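Hi, here's the filled form for the chain we discussed.

Project: internal
Contact: R.S.
Residues: 255
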Amino acid sequence: MSSHDDTIREQFTKQAIPFSNAPGIKDEDALRLLVEFAGAGPQDVVLDVACGPGLVVCAFAQVARHVTGIDLTPAMIERARELRRQKGLTNVTLEVGDVLSLPYPDASFSIVTARFAFHHLPDPRAVLAEMKRVCAPAGNVVVIDVMASPDPEKAAAFNRMERLRDPSHVRALALTELTRLFSQTGLGDPRTTFYGLRSEMEALLRRSFPEPGNAAKIRRILRDSLADDALGIGTHPQGDEIHFVYPVAILMARR
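And the returned structure, exactly as it came back:
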């Protein structure tokens, strides 16, 4: 197990409850968009990679035959099991496991997804290749993630801020980079759709666990970006609060 895996597990053990309760993460409209864009139906067998608290798993389970969720962090899987219990779902399997070496045979699933995971991965292409491997021919591989700005300076500033906020953050990719991952793994050009994940500075910090002293740095970075959108997330004042929108891409390709 790598040291970065340890960092992910540490961060998401702390974040399990606040992350799963965040309005933008549990947004029903965004989850519905994902399920519809993936084309899920009653015959589908779905895998959600790095499933976190099970929100995507349970959304797909409303329409699919069976859904499996796998995540590195036991606390996240426990949250997902609780959500499964609350919703009374019987067509869901949840397990702790490594997304770099998925414990499933080739072509096991008709839809394979990963939401808000790729920016935490040192080698997202390797994980996408694993997602492709376990996806059946004519199945759909779907990646949902925050996009960095196409402006390299804004992208670098955004990633610096996110690493201060969450030490498990590696790098959010620009849309062109996300698209390139699909061609690099032989999936071709993905279809895309987009939405915005809205947030507010203090609410975001309440569900984050930065190193001591970094919260003040994050506040300063966000306040400074009001002048020139230096992070590429449309930072703007709203009364006494600072609001912004993480741009999110949904990319899907046929296996």
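Let me know if anything looks off before we file it.
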